[in-house]
Fold this sequence. Notes:
The complex is a heterotrimer. Chain A is mostly helical.
Amino acid sequence: MWNWLHQLASPPCFNRFVAMLLPWLAAAWLTTFMIGLWWSLVKAPADYQQGEGYRIIFIHVPAAWLSLFIYVVMASVAAIGLVWKFKLAPVFTAASAPLGAAFTALTLVTGSVWGKPMWGTWWVWDARLTSELILLFLYLGYIALQNTISDVRSRNQAGAILLIVGVVNIPIIHYSVEWWNTLHQPASIMKFDSPSVHPQMLYPLLLMAISFKLFYGTALLLAMQCILWQRQRGGNEYA
Amino acid sequence: MLESLSTFIQMGGYGGYVWFCYAAAVAMQAGMIINLWRRRQQLLSQKKQ
Amino acid sequence: MYSSPLFKGYRAIVQRDLTSLRRRPFDWLLPLAFFMLVNMLFAIAIGGDRTALANVAPAIIWSAVLLAALLTHDGILRPDYESGFMEQLLLSPHPLPLVALAKSSVHWLTTGVPLMLVAPLVAMMLGLSPRGIQALLLTLPPTTIAMSLLTVFAAALTVGQKNHLLATLLVLPLTIPLLIFAVATIDSAVAGQSLLAPAALLSALAILALTLLPLAIAGVIRIMGGQ
Lengths: 239, 49, 227
């Protein structure tokens, strides 16, 4: 297993791996996305409280899940890379960061657009939206650090430590923001999570979540390949 | 048929909000994949030179 | 304990840094001036309404404390890095986490403690109630300790950089739990409620920072010093 992982880090082997996996991942992503779109826009019934407006949930929630998922995966890979010195680990995190930041931004935008008809304003300092905004700054901090350190080795290792410190902080930030939110927000704000979700709403939600993760896989492989080839040319991968 | 299509687009009055979110999700994913693919092809052609 | 070589190394670094700071008083006077200026700006912007000012006083003071502590990051490690002292430290037998702890202690003594002395005065000027000032005194030590460790972490990450705003982007998101619990402690005190829960959570955060961050700082110093 370890040998196989180390072998994968060599560029020719990684290129073969990508060539093998990429078409399948892309096909799975497109298929699940198309079915997910149809299910969430057409087949899923309207919500009894929010009417058709709740359909934003099928974009907003999978994007929020993915944004957090990417950060945790990045931190885990960074920790593994720091301990066992995998060559691909820093490439993995560098390729993931812009994707994670993009999905965090998508979560914020869709949350705000959802909030306008439901809450009456474009932004409320709701616990989840606030945590997501902080997550965006964590991503931006990592990307900024990657862009400013010129030495590749120190950039990789310093970025890994920043990610690990960040991931230890994420649950603390999340719970403190939630606690702060219960202190300051009036209870009138609508709760989106009902105790039992109708299966016709749950299945498309899960399908969309899977589709978003498949997109992450597809884009990640492409981005990693770009970074590796750019490094071979000796260029800066952030050019 | 045409009427059901227009109710589908209106989304019970939430049409603008719902379609904006879906359009943003589709545009973001498509844009990223196209961008990455074009950079990949560019790098590939430079590698072959 | 005092004769153990570990403590000796720690004490030597603290003494050396304190001596050099005594020769450059501006390094620790400037954050204080900055802190008072930020508070003054808010007071002027909010205007003569004393009740409104007292209501937002905890928020103003805490934002100013975080910013004042963080803005000193540039002077912590860069002089050592440029003079080659950092390489000496890397080669010395002293464990790096202890070096990180020593650097954080110096930062706390020269930024945290002066802020602790000035903050109650500023709080009085902003019209915070006596109960609120008591709570402020209670929350200042854990918050400034955690802040000092975070600032040294930021200083280590940005040691070779010219862009000073990078450190704020890296560390300010991580300070949000501190801000939340510190402001909540004062708010509960002013409202006459028990402040045990937020104060205990704040102390827990300070202990967590005190135990884990020296390891992270040591890792970053090793990476940056070996560049």
